[in-house]
Design a protein that fits this description.
single chain; 7-stranded mixed β-sheet; 123 residues; 4-stranded antiparallel β-sheet; mainly beta; elongated; 11 strands
Length: 123
């Protein structure tokens, strides 16, 4: 199978910066889109940013201009640089990847999630 391992996160004051990374490993033939989601207590999980294998990125409106998503295809890793953080950015951040695994002549496309990492912005 495929595992996504996140790192980064933590506690930061409002206006500060944090960086997250997520490395995929396992039976990977290729990775399509990768992304970051977040979930605050009592709220639904929401999409923060996504990036295609070609590098095209999309962002949640509230993070545009503050967050930057990037990826290293050779390392199967996605990053999220978060600047000018606000208390509303607090939550558990999850990485997500659409992975193609090849089994003989068959390709399987599945979605995988990281374990989540806490981001807390104090204000």
């Amino acid at each position: 199978q495929v595992q996504l391992v996140e790192s980064g996160g933590g506690l930061v004051q409002a206006g500060g910066s944090l960086g997250l990374s997520c490395a995929a490993s396992g039976r990977i033939f290729s990775i399509n889109a990768m992304g970051w989601y977040r979930q605050a207590p009592g709220k639904q999980r929401e999409l923060v940013a996504t990036i295609t294998s070609g590098g095209s990125a999309n962002y949640l409106d509230s993070v545009k201009g503050r967050f930057t998503i990037s990826r290293d295809n050779a390392k199967n890793t996605v990053y999220l640089q978060m600047n000018s953080l606000k208390p509303d950015d607090s939550g558990v951040y999850y990485c997500n990847a659409r992975v193609i695994s090849r089994y003989g002549s068959n390709d399987n496309l599945n979605t995988y999630w990281g374990q989540g990492t806490q981001v807390t912005v104090s204000g």
